[in-house]
Write the structure tokens for this entry.
Amino acid sequence: MMNHKKLLIGCGCALLAIALVVCLVLVIGNSAGDKPTLPSNGTTVTNPDGTTNPTDGTTPSGNTNPTGSDASDPTEPSSGVTDPTVPTIDLTEPTTEPTEPPYSYPTEPNGDIIPIDPNEGQTTTPVVTPVDLGGVTVDTITTEIFNNWSGEQRRAFLEYFNANIDNMTLDQKYYVYQQTQHNGWMDEGLMSKGLYFCSERDYERWLEKKDLGCTYCADTDCVAFYARSEKGYTEYDYTKCPHYNEEHDPSIYCQECGYKRFGKCSSGETGCTRVVSKDMPCPDCGETVYVGKCHHCVHP
């Protein structure tokens, strides 16, 4: 009885195992029917519908698919082909500035270049109207007029005066300087004697120097006292003395050795250099110049 039960249980298990195997085969079969595998030996593959797929490397139309470096995906455009609906835009910036075309000069019928006015195409500078001085000249200017002028009028008058000063007489120069710089002080009595000073104090200093006498002739009334400067003022000028001798002028000649002072020499001329404080090298020849000693060298 016991053996009979064991036999029935064993048969049931065997049937259950067979049923599982059958189900597994069916599932695998369906999967294999959806995705048939291609054999690797180049044989014909049979589809579930009974048709065959060739595996000899040819397409159904007989065209050979390219292989190797020339092969490409037929669904993708080849290199360099752009979509005609999307324009290609170069977003890179130019590396050089654009250049203008060379200018072509106009020429005459005979081939000569026509001269071009350099101001052509430019705005003409307006002419500046001179400052109105009311007709005042270097002979009619007065301190009152000058002081009542604007700064612009004063500058305009003085610019004109300085620009033309070389063409003016000593009397004109003296008159303008007195009216514009010294409040118009002018002593008619002194002027009648040929004396021109900027102030009363200037006249007094001249008298004091005159009382000392001329440096060269010792005369207290030497003509050297009545010389006039480039501005028209009376001043003592010892070079105007009748006894003046250039070689005795210490500003030109050394009174110790008789040579010209180095700064008064011409090129190639021997001059004298002296120092009064300490020995030092000569700035021209490099030799030592000793205090109180004359040093001679050639002016370059």
About this structure: Helices lie at 2-34, 143-148, 151-163, 170-181, 188-192, 200-211. Residues 32-46, 54-89, 93-103, 123-129 have pLDDT under 50 and may be disordered. Strands lie at 45-46, 52-53, 227-228, 234-235, 270-273, 280-281, 288-289, 295-298.
